[in-house]
Amino acid sequence: MSSSISSKIHEVAVGNLTFSSDFDSGNTCAVDYDAASNTYNLWMAHDCDGTQYESHFKAWFYFGVRGFTADQKVAFAINNMGKQRQLFNVHKLRPVTRAIPDDPQWKRIEGRTLLLRQGSKKDRNYELRWSYKYKYSPEATVYFAMCYPFGYDDLQLYLEQLESICRDDPRAAALRSHYDLKFVPMINPDGVHMGNYRTNSRGINLNRFYSNAGPDHEAVTAIVELAQGYAQRDLLHLYVDLHAHANKTGCFLFGNALNSPLHHAWNTAFARVMAINSPYFDLNKCNFSAKNMSKRDKRISRESSRGAALGNLTGDGEQSNEVAHSENNEDDEGGNDAASVSSKEGCGRVAIHKLTGITHSYTLECSYARPTHVDCTANIPGSSKMT
C-alpha cells in the first residue's frame, strides 16, 4: 500500500467499519483490513502530501471510525509512522480517543501501544499498533489521534477556558493589574487544518524564520513586528513560545545564555519561579546554554549523543545531570531533518531576544507523553500565590 496518497479518506467502508479523516487536522489517507489478524491497517499523509512541498514528517494521525458492533474487539496499526521509538516505546505514550456523542472527552486509550520497524532502515517506516474494545452505543463515532487535537474548533474551546481562568484566578488578576498580556493561540492554521505534523501548507517550519521572516512566513512576520514595536516603547518584558516535545518527559524551559552574569541570573530565575508554582515543572531539564541558541538541525544518533550533557541553568560553564539521549533532535523547538541547514538561531525565543534585547525570552517545552515527576509544592511558603 502506498503511503503517498494525498487525499484524506471520507466515509470509506472497510470490513464492517466506516472510516473518515476528512475534517480539521485529520490526515489518514488509506485503510485496509487483514481478516487473519483482525487488524485495520491505516496510512497517514506526510506533511504537504501530494504537493511540491511534501516532506518526510509523519508522526501525527487523526481519524474517526463508526459501525462497531457491541463489544467488538479489533486492532489498529498505523503503517507508516516516523521514528518515534523514544516517545512510544520508552515514554509509553498512548494515543487519545473519544466517542461522539457518548463520551466526548478525550482520554488515553487503555492498554499499551507498540512501535515496530517496517522494512529496511532506508524506508524509515514504523508501525504503531494497539488493540481496542468497543463499549458504546451502535450510533457512536469513535475518534483516535496521536495526542489531544488542536484544530480550529478545539481552539475556540480553549480560548473560552482561557477567558474563564483570566476572569477567576487571583494570580491572573494580579498580572492583569500590572501587565497587558498578548496571546497568539495558533500561528500555523493552514498546516493544522491539513493535518501536518510540523510544517505549514508550503512545507515551511515557521519556527526557523523569526530572525529573517518574510512574505512566506505571515504569522511569524506579524509576531516579530509586534514584539519589536512593543520593545521600542520599552513595553516588552516577556516572550514565551509553547511547544510539545517528543524525546523527553516533563515540562521545562529553553532559555538563552546572556553575557551579563546579573542578567543571566535574572533570566534563569524565571525557571525557578515556575518550579515553585507548578508541580509538573522539571527544573533539571531546563537548558540555558549558548550551544542551544545556535545548534543546527540534524539527526543525532543515540551513540553519538551518549555522554553529551546539556548545559544547565548556569549556561555553558557547567553541565546538568540530564544527558542527551534522543534518537534525533527534530522535536527540539521544531527542528528539521538531516538535510536542513537551519538552526535554532531562527527560532522564536532566540530571535526575539536578539532583535529586542529582552532578558526573558523562552520556549516552554511540554512532553507529549507524561511529566517526569510531580513535585507537590503546597507546603512551600508562598507557592500557592504570586509573590
Automatic annotation (TrEMBL):
Q: Annotated region Disordered: where?
A: 294-342
**Which controlled-vocabulary keywords does the entry list?**
Carboxypeptidase, Hydrolase, Protease
Native source organism of the sequence: Perkinsus olseni
Question: Residues in domain Peptidase M14?
Answer: 162-387
Per the UniProt record, one Pfam family is: Pepdidase_M14_N
Task: Indicate whether Nucleus appears among the record's keywords.
Answer: no
Coiled-coil positions are: none
- Write the gene name: AGBL5
Organism lineage string:
Eukaryota, Sar, Alveolata, Perkinsozoa, Perkinsea
Indicate the family of this protein. Answer: Belongs to the peptidase M14 family.
Name-wise, this protein is Cytosolic carboxypeptidase-like protein 5
